[in-house]
Amino acid sequence: MANFDPEVFLSSEGCVAVVPGNAQNAGFSIGLGALSADSSYDNLKAIVTSVTMNEMVNVQFTPTLEKSIFMYVFGDQISSLDVSGVCFLAPQKGGVSGVTALRTFYQENKVSIKADPISITLGAAGAQGLAFSGFLVGGTFSANDPQNMLGSFSLKLSYMP
Q1: Alpha-carbon gap, residue 131 to 107, rounded angstroms
Q2: Which fold has domain 23-159?
């Protein structure tokens, strides 16, 4: 039987399932564009449950009196990427809860504080992955399951098409 860290499941009874496989190949990574060697975000962990990309063209349709429609294309709009997931409300190793660590990450790396882009890779890291370089423009943090000491988060990034 696997040994689980008792700090992770503090508040309620339930069951724990072990998912076999290598967690290092989880397929999603977030890294700062200019990560310093003494950064505390190297091991910032959360459970990502949703990634939503929004890409649109900047286009205008103009109908005429002669039942024709003209289309004017002005390039692409700025795109957005929403990363959502679950985090722990109970303090983890180091005495900081997951929701606090994520909010601190947002506060210290939002575009109004730090102009460096954040690197996002979806899929396998390297040649297989889909890479983005974007700016952290929004964050939502909720304590929506206090019985199980779980919260949720959403980070919004804007990136150039």
Answers
A1: 23
A2: Elongation Factor Tu (Ef-tu); domain 3 (2.40.30)
